[in-house]
Amino acid sequence: MPVGEKASTTMMWMKQLSTTTINSVSSRLKAFMSGSPFKRHIAVGVAVWIVLNLIVFFIYQGKIDTAEKSFYNKGIDLALGLSDKSSSPILSTDILSLNVAIREMMENPEILFTAILDHQDKILAHSDPVKINRQMEPVQGEAPVETINGVQIVSGKDDDQTPVIVFRNDVTYSGVKIGKVAIGWGGGKLASAVESYRLYMVLFMLASLAAVAAALILVERTLKKRKMAMEKAMAGMTRIGPYLLTRKIAQGGMAELYLADYLREDGFRKTVAVKKVLPHLADNRDFIDMFIREARLAALLQHPNVVQIADFGKIQNAYFIAMEYVNGKNLAEIMGFLKKGLPVDMAVFLVLKISNGLQYSHSRKDDKTGTPLNIVHRDISPQNILISLNGEVKLSDFGISKATSEPSLTQAGVIKGKLSYLSPEQAMGQDVNHQIDIYALGLVFYEILSGSRLYRFANDIEAIRTIPQMTIPPIITRRPDIPQGLNDIVMKCLEKSTVKRYQTAQELHDDLLKLKNHLGITYDASDLALFMRGNFEEPEPEPVV
């Protein structure tokens, strides 16, 4: 390969490598930067490696340009000098003087051949006497490089396949072309310089990559040790600021729930529930942002039928939400205990309370601007309906709820909410509003009356395919003792068409209240408290010391 082509190929290779690397890394950089600290360190390390290699690449390119310029300038000077010397001898056909000029030129060991031609490109003198009086032929694989100061520079190979750079210049007399000179300079030195710089570049890339990798390994080990120490400390944590953790109530894949005592310096004590992020998620920025967002959004809601948020934040590396403790069971636990549908009066009372809490949440406005927040719960299910031993009914866990004042954290393709309580519009990926909560509450209503979940799905694909097409049989066919009016209310909640469905939770609440009065239902919180205490009351647990 001619040396000029080698240099061009090398630079093109480097540019392609840099472009490919940048495009590949930039597409993932944002995801990395929003992840764990180690991922952010990886992103920074890769960015530093790219910047360093770009800097070295430009230095490399500058070195190549300098080497080429120096090489070409020498050849140009020799070609111009030989042209001046050859002018008079060519005009007078002084072959002896031409041969002397060629011998002087060939004293340079880097020059492979020298030729002096007449105006018809016939060789008058040549470093190889055999070629005298022949027509000058181009070198093998001749390729133009550039023309500088009238000197044409081409690259190719000599007869013995040696890389050569040829400098050609016209010989003139009084502005008339009378001949030409050609100097073949060995390209090995320039090629060697290009290869050396390329080797240095590759070695630097590998060395810098190894250095960055070693630094990342060191950082990863340091972070792992620090994380293990933090997890150990958090796992053994029995207190978060003013909250004394007394008993673990439950644990999921992301957080654990504790019964805790809020203690003040003046001796005030109050039982609360504390949701604490699991140690391995404490440095996951995306999850922490969503966790804090849940707390911030839920803290806006102050209603008897919504679990109250008392505090949230970070203390001693532990992210937590302190909330009202509902001493009782969730509706799923109650249904699992009974293994049958609830009495009509009890079911109506429960849905009345939840619809009341939902209407409050849906209609909540910004305290400062008065702008509707349009909060949608998005996860109405029996697990998130809590019933206390005192007969209180509360809606909990606004963890995936959405307010128009908050940026959406839902990623494309991710269905929010439990699969068995999705609305048709959610399953079809359509725009949703508060009516999805009404549909989900209708499914819960259907479930607590019939005694079993309406449908179950193994995965979201099955749910997406089934829900929009599924025909829901009237609840009265599953439980004939239900009044027709109650059947109509339940099935209106479950209308696939949002136009036919209840427009607001208030409409549902009002229809239930009318039915309750019409049927003469007197069931209230005291009846619910009797039911709860009779079935679920347990002695107070001893505090953990």
TrEMBL record:
Protein name (database record): Protein kinase domain-containing protein
Coiled coil: none
Record-linked PROSITE patterns: PROTEIN_KINASE_DOM, PROTEIN_KINASE_TYR
Organism: Desulfosarcina alkanivorans
Domain annotation Protein kinase: ranges: 243-513
Matching Pfam families: Pkinase
Signal peptide: none
Transmembrane segments: 42-60, 199-219
Alphabetical UniProt keywords: ATP-binding, Kinase, Membrane, Nucleotide-binding, Transferase, Transmembrane, Transmembrane helix
A molecular-function term among this protein's GO annotations: protein serine/threonine kinase activity
